[in-house]
Specification:
Number of domains: 2
Shape: globular
Largest sheet: 6 strands, antiparallel
Order of helices and strands: EEEEEHEEEHEEHHEEEHHH
Helix content: 25-40%
Low-confidence stretches: 253-263
CATH architecture of the largest domain: 2-Layer Sandwich
Strand content: 25-35%
Number of helices: 7
CATH superfamily of the largest domain: ATP-grasp fold, B domain
Length: 266
Amino acid sequence: MARGRRIYEGKAKVLYEGPEPGTLIQYFKDDATAFNAQKHAVITGKGVLNNRISEFIMMRLQEVGIPTHFIRRLNMREQLIREVEIVPVEVVVRNVAAGSFAKRFNQPEGTPLPRSIVEYYYKSDELGDPLITEEHITAFNWASPPELDDMFNLALRINDYLSGLFMGAGMKLVDFKVEFGRLYTPEDVRIVLADEISPDSCRLWDIKTNDSMDKDRFRKDLGGLREAYQEVARRLGILQEMGPAEVTSLTEASGDSANDDDSKTA
């Protein structure tokens, strides 16, 4: 499918105009970044894996009634998505103390939280994505109170579903980050899940060993990031469905030795 002009490039993805009004093509890069891109590396095949994993998760969430921007996967690295107006608020759901949360509250890493905790961060690389409150969000009109309620409730529904999904595949969902957007239709405007859900945006631990299976392997110089993402795909049954070209892309030489930054799921 021919893509139009590039309209946005982030640390891990590029957005292009889609084939029809109201659509975009989302391209997954192999770049790995951390600490607001102070660390950077190119991990061969990472974009292919994240494309497949995010597709799998978005489709499963749609099946249980979670509205998303996802339409379909186009090829190894691209998805067709609905164009939305991104709400500049990153929503993080935490189930276990880890990363910056553990440091902030002096909690040992791995401590189960009394209940799932939802946090909000202002989406701004220049400001370092600061932690914010509901008052900030509504006062600065980043989202209305009803939109904030939708984001909160959807985030908890996503957490409930993904916790069970990953648990069934031998992984613990420690925390994750999601973004939402406004989808404009002739009838109304609604909040939908946007961006991606992948090991880039989730903290996943092996249930038996607590070994990291996510971007922490890059943040903490543990190595084996691509192999960890492959294992996530294998456990979810995705790796077995990948075509020869996709599998070949995962066996090429990789620069998996560089470091990454401690984002909100840190």
